[in-house]
Automatic annotation (TrEMBL):
Protein name per UniProt: RNA polymerase sigma factor
Superkingdom field: Bacteria
Gene expressing this chain: sigK
Organism classification: Bacteria, Bacillati, Actinomycetota, Actinomycetes, Propionibacteriales
UniProt source species: Nocardioides vastitatis
Domain named RNA polymerase sigma-70 region: residues: 42-108
Family: Belongs to the sigma-70 factor family. ECF subfamily.
UniProt-listed PANTHER family: ECF RNA POLYMERASE SIGMA FACTOR SIGK, RNA POLYMERASE ECF-TYPE SIGMA FACTO
Length: 201
């Protein structure tokens, strides 16, 4: 497992266009009001960077796809907490992504330490480490369970994008769809996942 970075990476540099930052903030604020179209635009504009950051931290494609999905579910649930006076929308998103990725790495490391301790010392594992590992497993299980509640076309597109690691263009090609249609299915599936899992659960 790769070392966990101390600081988030991928946040906008000082020379980033102010217009883009403002657009992200506007989309995030509209998402906080339940605007699904705004969330879809925000997802399109930022998902590649979020996934890239997560992948650099966890160094495992399958886990990165799961964590990226969890990141956008949290963004959709907690968009109202964004405060433009404290930083850019993209920095806020990337901070969430970094925290989720670090949590996954630490949980995996705790699980590894637990196994090593058990085999080397043959005694009961530490309760906190077990709880951390169980929590990460439960979150992944909840997401997988929620996937079964999607329509066939939504689940098919979402699984290719997140669990298959394909880009939107590749998903469109595999399903013989226009790119816009593939993106819509992925976005709608993500939003429905959030509603299935439930706010505040």
């Amino acid at each position: 497992m790769a070392p966990v970075p101390d600081q988030p990476v991928g946040v906008p540099h000082p020379g980033a266009p102010a217009g883009v930052a403002g657009e992200h903030a506007s989309l995030l604020k509209r998402s906080a009001r339940g605007d699904q179209a705004a969330f879809a635009e925000l997802y399109d504009a930022t998902s590649a960077r979020v996934h890239g950051l997560v992948l650099r931290v966890v160094r495992d494609r399958a886990q990165a796809e799961e964590v990226t999905q969890e990141v956008f579910l949290e963004i959709w649930r907690t968009a109202s907490r964004f405060d433009a006076e404290r930083g850019s929308a993209l920095a806020w998103l990337m901070t969430i992504a970094h925290r989720k990725a670090v949590d996954r790495v630490r949980s995996a490391e705790a699980s590894t330490r637990r196994d090593l301790t058990y085999h080397q010392r043959n005694h009961t594992v530490d309760h906190d480490e077990t709880a951390d590992a169980a929590h990460a497993s439960l979150e992944a299980h909840r997401v997988r369970t929620a996937l079964t509640q999607l329509t066939h076309v939504q689940r098919e597109a979402l699984e290719l994008a997140y669990f298959g690691g394909y880009t939107h263009t590749e998903v469109a090609s595999l399903l013989d769809l226009p790119v816009g249609t593939a993106k819509t299915r992925i976005r709608d599936g993500l939003i429905r996942l959030r509603d299935t899992i439930g706010v505040g659960r």
